[in-house]
Amino acid sequence: MIIILLLLLAYLIGSIPSGLWVGKLFYNVDIREHGSGNLGGTNTFRTLGKKAGLIVTIMDILKGTAATLLGSLTIFEAANIHPLILGIVAVVGHMYPIFAGFKGGKAVATSGGILLGYNWPIFVILVIGFLVVLKLTKMVSLTSMILAIVALLYSVIYYFTVDKDWPLIIIVLLLGIFIFYRHRSNLKRIKAGTEPKVTWL
Question: Contact, 63 vs 13, CB < 8 A?
Fold first, then answer.
């Protein structure tokens, strides 16, 4: 029962539609009706501006972190569930949120939040890498997919050089699959040369 409760809580945390709530509460705007229609940070940046985009991105990151750390709370320790499992359930909630008609974000920020809660040095490296690659490509979607590959490579290198953490490799691989799947339409636009580019970096 404790495990079921933990999984449910992780999903509900991930389901918090940060972009929708910030848009409606502070801007009286439903971002699903603007831009790409996506609830993630990128569409929030485009629709509501830098401040709202940053707030939503941070909130989405912290959803993954909170879910990952959930099992470490004293009341849940007896469940002995791997934190990465809770994290990936939160990502599923982020992509298919019960609070927003099961139409959510593209898994990037919340996936990063999992790594922040589980192995923060990886998160820091990926954030730096994200900014560098985004500066070069000007495309958030392409940068996200490239960093998903980088994260997988890093987890493999980490396995052979630091700690044989095979669950990390499996979960990072799954997160990468999620990210590529959620960016299907972006891949088509990238190939067609019509993918929107950022202008603020």
Answer: yes
